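Quick one: structure tokens for this chain, please?
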Amino acid sequence: MVIEVDLRHLRFPGVALPALLLASLTVACGSSGGDVLYIDAPTTNLKVGERISLALQATEVLAAPAEWDVQELEGGSLVRTTGQQNTYLAPPLAGTYHIVVRAVRANGQKVRAVQVMVVQANVSVEPASVRLAPGESCTFTARVKGLRDPKILWTVEDGDGGQVTQGGMYTAPSQFGYYQVTATVQTDDRPTATATVRVE
């Protein structure tokens, strides 16, 4: 933002302003660059290890190529350190991370843009599908990437679809059909994975 102040309408008792200042004074306010730089991202929610392409948009000509960085030491990596295009590789641990782009305007003012990235854990269930006889049991295993000590909640999606323990042991119902067993990671974003059971 730029503010123009006309000093001809201001009075400072006992102070004689130089004639050069009596015309006008222009003051540039703010250094965040929120109105100069923008980071275009197809999504801000990623799975651990996922890649996405990023593009920097500037509303004016910059004095030098912009510089990219990830704020957190373990917040993932960028393919390039400068330029308009970049690729972000999410880290192996889930969390919230910040991509920072710094640049210098033609007038020498430093500006920057920050993009928040939320990296989620990746969960899968093994086996992904199974055939069971009525009353037969099977133990499912949840594989979680991105968390050091994940807590898993096991549920059966169908009311009469059998029973599952919190250790992942599932017992098929007496009725034939297809049923869903779901593993939910107990985090704020609650990622899930589902296995299909065919009872016949």
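The mean pLDDT is 85.
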